[in-house]
Amino acid sequence: MATLTTTRANTAPLSQQDVRLAESSSRTLRRLLGALQDAGTANAGFQQATLRVRIDRGADGESADVALPEAALPLLLTVLREMGSGKGVAVVATDAEVTTQQAADFLNVSRPYFVKLLEAGKIPFRTVGPRRRVRVADLLRYREREEAERHRGLDELAAEAQRLGMY
C-alpha cells in the first residue's frame, strides 16, 4: 500500500504550464469518476481503467494504452489535484521505514519532540544499530489519532459554546 504526501522540498519547482495541465487533467479525471459514481458503477466496481498516454516529441510521438487498477484512480486524481495547486508530491509505500528526521518532517514537528513521542511509546519503532526506524503506516496511524483527538476537542468546545449561548 502507498500513501501520498505533498512536499515542496527536494523537488524541482513546477512550471506554470505543468500546474495548469495538472489542474485541467484533475478536473477531467474528477468529472469522469463522478460520472461513474452517478451511473452507479462505483458501487458495482470495475476491474480496471485504460489511460491513453501520448508522448509528444515534435513530429514523432509515441502512444500506448496503459491499464490501471481501480485503486490507482483516486491516487492519480490526488496527485494531479496537488500538482494543480502547485505542490510537489511524493508517493511512499506504507510499509517503508524512515529515519526520525524524515518522520519528524512528515509530521511537521522537531526531531527532539518526535524522539520524545517515540520514547513515550506513542509511535512504535525499531532500532537498526544505534538508529531508530519508523514505519510510514505507524506515522499515518499516529497522525489520524491526533487529528481525531483535535476534532473531539473542537467538538466539545463548540458544544460548550452553544450550551453557554456564546455562538
Q: How would you summarize what this structure contains?
A:
By secondary structure, the protein is an alpha+beta fold. It has helices at 16-38, 41-44, 72-84, 100-107, 111-119, 136-163; strands at 2-7, 48-57, 60-69, 88-93, 97-98, 126-128, 131-135.
Walkthrough of the structure:
This protein is α+β, with helices and mostly antiparallel strands and 167 residues long. The protein has two domains: 93 residues, no CATH class; 74 residues, Arc Repressor Mutant, subunit A (Orthogonal Bundle). About 3% of the residues have low confidence. A hairpin with a 2-residue loop joins strand 6 and strand 7. The N and C termini lie far apart (43 Å). The chain has six helices and seven strands, in the order E-H-H-E-E-H-E-E-H-H-E-E-H. The radius of gyration is 21 Å and the shape is extended. A three-stranded antiparallel sheet has the order 5-7-6. Strands 1-4 form a two-stranded antiparallel ribbon. The protein has a two-stranded antiparallel ribbon with strand order 2-3.
Query: Which structural class should the secondary elements be placed in?
Result: alpha+beta
Principal-axis shape equals: extended
Roughly how many Å is the radius of gyration? 21 Å
Give the low-confidence spans: 6-10
Number of helices: 6
Q: What percentage of amino acids are in beta strands?
A: 25-35%
Helix content: 40-55%
Q: How many strand units? A: 7
* N-to-C order of helices and strands: EHHEEHEEHHEEH
Q: How widely separated are the two ends?
A: 43 Å
Q: How many discrete domains?
A: 2
Mean pLDDT: 84
Strands of the largest sheet, in order across it? 5-7-6
The main sheet comes to: 3 strands, antiparallel
